[in-house]
UniProtKB/TrEMBL annotation, chain B:
Cross-referenced InterPro entries: BP-dependent_transpt_permease, MetI-like, MetI-like_sf
Name of this chain's protein: Peptide/nickel transport system permease protein
Cell compartments where the protein resides: Cell membrane
Superkingdom classification of source: Bacteria
Region of interest: Disordered: 1-23
GO biological process: transmembrane transport
Protein keywords: Cell membrane, Membrane, Transmembrane, Transmembrane helix, Transport
Pfam families given in the database record: BPD_transp_1
Stored SUPFAM superfamilies: MetI-like
Amino acid sequence: MGAPRGIRSPCSRGEPMVAFIVRRLLQSVLVMLTVALVGFALFTYVGDPVNNMVGQDTSLADRERLREELGLNDPFPVQFARFVVNAAQADFGISYRHGRPVEDLLIERAPATLELSFAAGLFALVVGVPMGIYTALNRHGWLSKAFLTVSLIGISLPTFLIGILLILVFSVWLGWLPSFGRGETVQIGWWSTGLLTRDGLVALILPAITLGLFQMTLIMRLVRAEMLEVLRTDYIKFARARGLSARAINFGHALKNTLVPVITITGLQLGSVIAFAIITETVFQWPGMGLLFIQAIEFVDIPVMAAYLVLVAFLFVLINLIVDILYFVVDPRLRVQGGGAGL
Amino acid sequence: MTEPGEIPLEAPREAPREAPLEAPGTRLGRLRATAWRAWDSDILYSFLRSPVTILAAVVALTLVAASLAAPMIAPTNPFALETVDLMAAFTPPVWMEGGSWDYVLGTDDQGRDLLSAILYGMRISLFVGVASVLFAMVLGVGLGLLAGYAGGWIDGLLMRIADVQISFPAILIALLIDGVARGLLPREVHHEVAIWVIIFAIGAPGWVQYARTVRGSTMVEKNREYVMAAHIMGVHPVVIALRHVLPNAMGPVLVIATIHLAIAVITEATLSFLGVGLPPTEPSLGTLIRIGNDFLFSGEWWITLFPGVALVLLVLSVNLLGDWLRDALNPKLR
């Protein structure tokens, strides 16, 4: 790829793009159906739903009636179809443990997880990208070496340990920051936010750093590697020969071409952030969906497990789809091949 | 792997041809040839050139040796209830006030010596890590060979599954497998087999990277002349795949396995920390950290910190070794 290339508009080859999107959509639907099948299998084969709903002294006849009413005696495809239809309407039944509809529980918990993930992602980008640029431009500086060492340690430290260490230093020893919960939250409609109070913002700091640290090191290493790669290319040499300023070369030419993979990976990592939020939420007792899921596993609360699984899978599929399509739009080479292979 | 043809100018390259001359065909002769090849290799050279790698290797070997020898070198056996003194609970490390040389790193809430608990815990962490890596490796290499060698719809199907699976984080899949096992197995049975469930849960999602790498090398190798020659000689395809193709694909597999080991140890620690891993009767490093986490606020920081430090040292040294191995086996990166 060269900087002064003739850039075609993304829509100049509209047809293969539509075909590509349709194919990816079909693939996504297939993945979702597979995940739904796993979720449904959980419901059906792990534990007996009737046993979980009735008391010890319910007669066999009553159980059988309930079984019939719930449709548990229907053939497999009918039951599965019902599960999929219900899931598509966000109806996952009643939590065994909380005795409330699962979708209510999830909606209640979603803002906490989303705010935490967003804050973590922001932290990772705002700190990771400049560090990556710096280490690429000053390859042999001592600060670069310090950054790289820190990043290696960051990758080797498990998320939960980072959280514990941060709590130990900033909450227990220094007493600066709170170590659990969301602090004071404000209710806006169904969304409860901690971003509007000082208390809530302070409570967000440690969890967000914990969750974002791994992504930060990843982004930093990625930006560094991509920058080094780009800086070796001919068009950068040419730009130097033309006498462009270092600033124009580094930021105008090199960084711009670095950002495509960075955006892709960051997008893909959004899913992992939500998954790793499970750990951070456990360490900080953050009342989000991840904590709900962990407790569901401990108590074998199948409806919550299945719902969380389907929800997270949906997020993943959605993110992957968007990233793939964006990639297709941004990188003309993929269009020439007819949009195959993927990454 | 380094191919001799790539560096024709280097003089010592002739040595391996000399060595077998001394005692052709004997075991000693072959051993000497192997030893000479190892001594002469680029890998050893790059190893000796990197102090960080040497340090990492020393740390990793020390930790592995210490955990293997735990029953012999640990001051006490943390699992033997008769040696545990409840009165000694929450003893701080030796250099703090109230510490004692009986418990160098202090004790936990049940009076177990922390140093011994860490040694035994590391044993369990390493066992789970190595076992799940081996499981993932066998599964992934097998499926990768199959996909690369068979091609066609088998290849297509396996790689689509891999595509889908790689987009989900391994920890999520491990959590799910663990959750299902908890639902399917009665509580007592689950306690018994928890360690195998964890190994499966950590290993199963790991096959993708091995499979992709081996598939790639297999597709390259299977069109080479030596494979065709083997075909013509009537060697069974399975034998060709295992004895001829696989050895040429093993370099990258080793690199992945090393880095995977670090990830597997972290994943196990995380699961145990979340309380869905190993039962407290067999505490791994993650379980110890989980126990200590309850006492963080009452000032007994050492119960958390020391197992944490042990975990980080282990993972960091393995990661460093993996990084070095990757660079050493891939001359293009140098």
